[in-house]
Here is the input.
Amino acid sequence: MFQVSERIKAIAPSMTLAISAKANELKAAGEHVINFGVGEPDFNTPEHICVAAKEALDKGYTKYVAAAGLPALKKAIVKKLKKDNNLDYEASQIIVSNGAKHSIFNAIFAVINPGDEVLIPKPYWLTYPEVVKSCGGIPEYIYATPRHGYKITAAQVKAAIRPQTKMLIFTSPNNPTGAVYTEDEIRAIAEVCVKHNIVVLSDEIYEKLIYGGETHFSIAQCSPEMKDLTIVVNGVSKSYAMTGWRLGYLACPEHLAKAISSFQSHSTSNVNTMTQYAAVAALEGDVKPMNEMIEAFGRRRNIMLEKLDGMKALGLDYVKPDGAFYVMLLCDKLYGKRYKGVKIRGSMDIADMLLTHKKVALTPGVCFGDDDAVRLSYALSAKDMLEGLEKIAEFASEVE
Ligand SMILES: Cc1ncc(COP(=O)(O)O)c(C=O)c1O
Here is the structure.
């Protein structure tokens, strides 16, 4: 018997594990479980992308390629960053990795020294603090409150900065809240970061999934100074329904890209070669399937919000999300009350009770550092969604 490293001990076990294990048990027992916990599009990868991967295989593109990415793919990413974000990068500033999650790990590993503080808006995507801790960094949270549309302000960032603050993790559109920051809000935050020399890890994985009239703006667009402090992270998982392919990328200043490239050459080498050819087809091919998927999400969002509007009288509330495919359902008004005689103490209890008694699975907000809400994904069919929301309403009406 030996001890695992202190580094790995710092990583918290996944809080969603117990809920998803129970949901799987119920499904295996033949129960119809409606799952609002999904974090990926329920659409197939568009045909032309699959064809590109098959062609790569047929042509024998099955060997190692450059660790930091296939030149053709880097070129496609450079073009995408210019076309969609008006950002100028050289291919040497792009690193292709095994999903945006891997890009985020690389970025934090390459920037954070033990003891450095990283500002993370809360609620947060649960991977961020664990990666920061695994690199010896210290997560410091800035509370994005529902009252402010789940958005942090420049003043909050300024107030949180200390001499040991090195990085801000910024996510717009946001998981879990669906918040989309406006250009003005982003410019104000950028001003503070430039003034205090704070590196911004800008997670833009949900860039394409925006509804309600907002548009995506990258913090790197604010100024050349801000761009020099920004690591833009993006990928194909969410926009092109390619979660299982595992391809993400980052764009950053040259000296950092060089360091990450060396590290990746010793850790994972290149992302699998067929996936990289598929990603070229995703970025350069027909956008119609992607747009259809986005429209479908938009329609479901409207259905969900309309239904949630009708549930306000039951003590449930929400902040209108403009992006991604999630909504945080505020349920703190039910805390302290009882369901079937059992006291409701927080979001984990709500999730557990809904699963046990209504066969509805969702993610408790406590997993994202916010116990006042539960997260509902609308990456499921409208039929299931309506049935599931009906059951949530039924549950809330039975709380005493
Ligand atoms: C905010 C955020 N960033 C990054 C990722 C990771 O995406 P990928 O599948 O590219 O690793 C996710 C996936 O859920 C996410 O929600």
